[in-house]
Amino acid sequence: NVTLPAAQESMEKRLVQALANKKKAAPGVLRVALEEKTYRALNLGVKMDLLVSSKDSTEVYEAKKNRSRVLDLYQLRMYWDGCAVDGCPLSSGVLVARSHPQEVRNLVKALNDSYRDPTGRPYHLSLSTWAEEGIDPKAV
Fold first, then answer.
1. CA–CA separation, 7 and 27 (whole Å)
2. How does pLDDT run across 15-68, given as a tens digit for each residue?
3. Bridge-partner residues for 60, per DSSP?
4. pTM given for the model
5. DSSP string spanning 48-99?
6. Are strands 50-54 and 58-63 parallel, antiparallel or unpaired?
7. Which of 73, 88, 108, 121 is least buried, going by the fewest C-beta atoms within 10 A?
8. Which of 79, 11, 91, 14 is nearest to 44 (CA)?
């Protein structure tokens, strides 16, 4: 009988943990939560990658280790909508990846310009890269 090695934490989880550590060190941050549940009001058990609360804002992050896709942006929007339904409005939603193709850039603009969350508030979604966040994916 050979004991199997423990499963190594995924690259994406390590990147999110590195981002969480950076956010915890930022001035004014009150709370940083990994895998925070949303859609609590509907008991759906959806978990957000990262939630960061400070004195004046609450941000949610969707993280991808490689290039982002349109589907990833819709996942971020789902987190935003869940927070709205739960009565916890967000200030911004950020999709972090190594890079963002033009179709994702186009969609984030369309969502911000033309769509509203379930409470009627406009979205404030943005795109960021690991480099812009000061995280080297090769180093985690």
1. 34
2. 999 999 999 999 999 999 999 999 998 989 899 999 999 988 999 999 999 999
3. 51, 93
4. 0.90
5. -SEEEEESS-EEEEEE-SS---HHHHHHHHHHHHHHHHTT---SEEEEEES-
6. antiparallel
7. 121
8. 79
Contact 75, 60 (CB under 8 A): no
124: amino acid identity, one letter: H
Q: Are the C-beta atoms of 15 and 65 separated by less than 8 Å? A: yes
d(CA 140, CA 119): 38
| Cβ atoms of 89 and 69 closer than 8 Å | no
Q: Nearest 5 degrees, angle CA 118-CA 32-CA 81?
A: 10
Whether 22 and 30 have beta carbons less than 8 Å apart is answered as no
CA neighbor of 106 nearest in space, from 135, 140, 69: 69
Pairing of strands 29-34, 46-47: unpaired
> How far is Cα 16 from Cα 86, in angstroms, rounded to an integer?
23
